[in-house]
Amino acid sequence: MSQGASRLQSLAGKVAVVSGSSSGIGLAIAMELSSRGAAIVVNYPPPSLGPAATSAIGHLKTPAIVVEADLSTREGPEILIVEAVREFGKIDILVNNAGLAVNLPFEQQTIEHWDSLVNLNGRGTFLLTQKALPHLTRGTGRIINICSVSSRGAPPLQTIYAGTKGMIDAFTRVWAKELPPKYGCTVNAVSPGPTTTTGFLAAGDEAMEILGPTIQNTPVGKRLGTPEEIAFGVAFLCEEEARWVNGEHLFVNGGLFVD
Ligand code: NAD
């Protein structure tokens, strides 16, 4: 995976917690923020992704730790924050990236799908942010929620997934008003379009058939996005110069969806 080798060390001294960062977009975000000088807390769910997460931090250029914490549980978010603060003493940047998708006809979506998606995408984002806030650096903190074009684009086969991303979209708007006066932070969302990750490629044939013609109509190019392109959008919001950007929903999708 390429990393911005020539980046200025504009985030030197910062600590970034990136949830679900052993692979895909989360890993690309961890690498991009590290390339700008931030120390990184990598997170993965137990038990299978430990080796991937450990090898991931081998690619980072700054101090980093790996924390095993299942953010779909009630306890997982607190575990991640406690470990981050034990190691680095503070949090400057929180990226709520961990998320799961299910692509199935509405009639086939089950209560088990509901529990896994709502508990991770929705409750995990809620609890992780709540646990992080007491440790967020006052005046300069950044909260970035990885949402999805599905939160606004109404894609077939994504009832629960789009619903949880709608929840994150709404969290972002509420927090952008409620939290900066108390914590001096900014709160923004970044919404990838279809992006080449394991999670996306597992969407299934029916979902791919629906998406195929849509992707062909992407204005900037007839292709999927890359995790690095999403990470760049996140890093932009982390920069000091982005201090006046708050409550934004940044779509990084080549113009596939324009709100
Ligand atoms: P992915 O499936 O490739 O990676 C998901 C990450 O979440 C992994 O690092 C995994 O370790 C982590 N994770 C899964 N369950 C977890 C749990 N219980 N606790 C902690 N971490 C857990 O997915 P991705 O495509 O890289 O997606 C990352 C984010 O971007 C998600 O929120 C996803 O909804 C969003 N997104 C992705 C796309 C896309 O096309 N790839 C499009 C829109 C939005």
From TrEMBL:
Transmembrane segments: none annotated. It holds the Pfam family adh_short_C2. Keywords: Oxidoreductase. Belongs to the short-chain dehydrogenases/reductases (SDR) family. This is Short chain type dehydrogenase. It comes from Bionectria ochroleuca. The lineage of its organism: Eukaryota, Fungi, Dikarya, Ascomycota, Pezizomycotina.
